Amino acid sequence: MDSSPRKIIHIDMDAFYASVEQRDDPSLRGKPIAVGGGGPRGVVATASYEARKFGVRSAMPGARARRLCPDLLFVRPRFEVYRSVSAQVRAIFQRFTDIIQPLSLDEAYLDVTVNKPGWTSATRVAEEIRRLIQEETGLTASAGVSYNKLIAKLASDQNKPDGLCVVRPGEGAAFIAAMPVRRIHGVGPVTARRMQALGIETGADLRDRSLPFLQAHFGSPALFYYRAARGEDDRPVHERQERKSVSVEDTFFDDLVEKDALLAEIDRIAQSLWARIEKADAYGRTVVLKVKFADFRIITRSRSFAAPVRTPDLLAETGRALLCAQLPLRMGARLLGLGVHNLEAGGEVEQGVQLALSL
C-alpha cells in the first residue's frame, strides 16, 4: 500500500425508495412495503426493512414477493421525488468534496483524502454526512469508510441500516477473510457456487488459493479475486462517468433449449434489468439480446426505438421478440443477457472490473 492511502467513503441510503414513501406517508411506517409493481409482470424496485425480514428483495418478481409476505403493500414508484431527494443528498456530499462517483440515485463513493473542511478523519466526515442527511431529508444512510473502494462498499453494508463501519489500512485482508465469498462485490451467485464447489467458502479460503489456480478456474477475473482477497483495490474515485449501457446476464447450469424455458428466463432477466434501469435512472433507445451457446459462441441481436424504452412491458416484449426470431436455437443456450444501449444523458456508471454477474 502507498504510505499515504486514500480515504474513501461509500454512502448507501437505507431502503431508499421505500424509506421516502414511509417518510411521506405516515400510514406506511412500520409496515412491510415494496416499491414497484405487484402484478404478474411487476418487480420490486426496493423493499422496506419490515418486508426484507420475510425475504423480499430488490429485483424480485412481485408475485413471489406477495407469496413470501402476504401483508406486503405495493407502492407505485415516484422517481421524480427520488431524484429530487438524491439531489439533496448530492448537495450534502459537495460540502465535503468534489470527488464524487455516484453509482445510482441512492449510493456513491466519495474521496475525502483531501476534504473541504480540512479534517484529517474520514470517519468524522462520514458521521457528519450521515447526520446532515437525516437532519435535512428525514432519511438514514449507512457508510463504509476505508482506504479503497472495494472495502468501503463492503463496509457500508456491514451495519445496515443506519450504520457506520470503518476498516483501516492494514485491516482489509482480515475484514475480507471472515466474509462469505458471495458477499464480495464482484463475485456473483454463479461464481460463488463455482467457488464453493472448489472448497472456497470465505475470503480466507480465496486468499489461500494461488493466482495460477484461480486463473485456471475463473479466467480473466482471477486477478481481481486474488487481489480482493488481500483487501487490494487501486481504482480511483471518478468524479463523473457517462454510462454507456445497462445489462443483466445469467449463466445456467443446464443449457436451455425449449422455447418456454428460454422465454421464462428472458422475462425474469427483463424484470431484473428494469429494476437496475430505474435505480440507475438510465433509459436507452436500443434493446440488446445476448445468447451464449453451449460451444461458447456468442450472438447479439438488437432493436432500436426513436425514444428511450420507458416501460417494463416494452422491454420484456422486445427481449422476447428478439429471442423468438432466433428460435429454434441450433444448440442449447448456456447464457442469456438483455441490455439497453444509447442511453439518455445523465446516467453514471461504476467502472472497473467488467464481470458477467448473474442476478
From TrEMBL:
One of its GO terms (cellular component) is cytosol. The keyword DNA-binding applies. It comes from the Bacteria. Its main location: cytoplasm. PROSITE patterns: UMUC. The record marks 17 as: Substrate discrimination. Its cofactor is Mg(2+). The active site is at residue 107. It catalyses: DNA(n) + a 2'-deoxyribonucleoside 5'-triphosphate = DNA(n+1) + diphosphate. GO terms for biological process: DNA repair; DNA-templated DNA replication; error-prone translesion synthesis; SOS response. Mg(2+) binds at residues 12, 106. Monomer. Poorly processive, error-prone DNA polymerase involved in untargeted mutagenesis. Copies undamaged DNA at stalled replication forks, which arise in vivo from mismatched or misaligned primer ends. These misaligned primers can be extended by PolIV. Exhibits no 3'-5' exonuclease (proofreading) activity. May be involved in translesional synthesis, in conjunction with the beta clamp from PolIII. This is DNA polymerase IV.
